[in-house]
Amino acid sequence: MHKRQALRHLGRLASLPLLAALLTGCFDNKPSFVSIDVTGADYARDFSLPDHNGQQRSIKDFAGKIVVVFFGFTQCPDVCPTSMLELAEIRKALGVDGARLQGLFITVDPERDTPEVLKAYMANFDPTFLALRPASPEQLAALAKDFKLYYKRVDGRTATSYSMDHSAGSYIYDTKGRLRLYTRYGSGVPALTADVRALLKQAG
Fold first, then answer.
1. Where does the pLDDT of residue 18 fall: very low under 50, low under 70, confident under 90, or very high at 90 and above?
2. Which CATH class is domain 36-203?
3. Confidence class of residue 22 from pLDDT cuts 50, 70 and 90?
């Protein structure tokens, strides 16, 4: 008898976490994201960089839009073009809301990525996307520190054949310019489209 009572008691205890989860799902209106939710982060809050047209930009310039920031370089063989192509696909998948998505590409290779090179590179993806370029190695280093970004030059056989190792994630800001999400490379178009839609829904 005591054994059966103990088993019933254990069964009730085991169901409590599930019940709590169900109740949380019923009463918590916060969206669930595929990306990492970094709401309230004290880093990567803003930047001040010229775009490929020579206009100085900051996150405040894109109020009312979801902003996706990706760091890369134009001679990147696969990760960078794949990420930018996916972002272009997300913009298309959003339909009329695509106009509320701003893609930003920040180069970690300002030595080779001149404004002209960056402008031509952006033309491969979406005409609304902008490329930003740090003015000096020191500005790039400070920006990387603020964004907790890893980057490193990898020397090649010649002085100009080097490559760049770098973090491959994207930073997603809401329509008020607040950093909300960090997404790792390879998350996929459907998942990221859903995350952007959720942020747009929050904004109304």
1. very low
2. alpha beta
3. very low
pLDDT at 21: 42
- Asked whether the predicted pLDDT for residue 15 surpasses 80, the reply is no
DSSP result, the chain: -HHHHHHHHHHHHHHHHHHHHHHHHHH--PPP-SSEE-TT-SS-----EEBTTS-EE-GGGGTTSEEEEEEE-TT-SSHHHHHHHHHHHHHHHTGGGGGGEEEEEEES-TTT--HHHHHHHHTTT-TT-EEE--SSHHHHHHHHHHTT--EEEE--SSTT--EEEE---EEEE-TTS-EEEEE-TT--HHHHHHHHHHHHHHH-
Asked whether 34 and 194 are in contact (CB, 8 A), the reply is yes
Output the pTM of the full model. Answer: 0.83
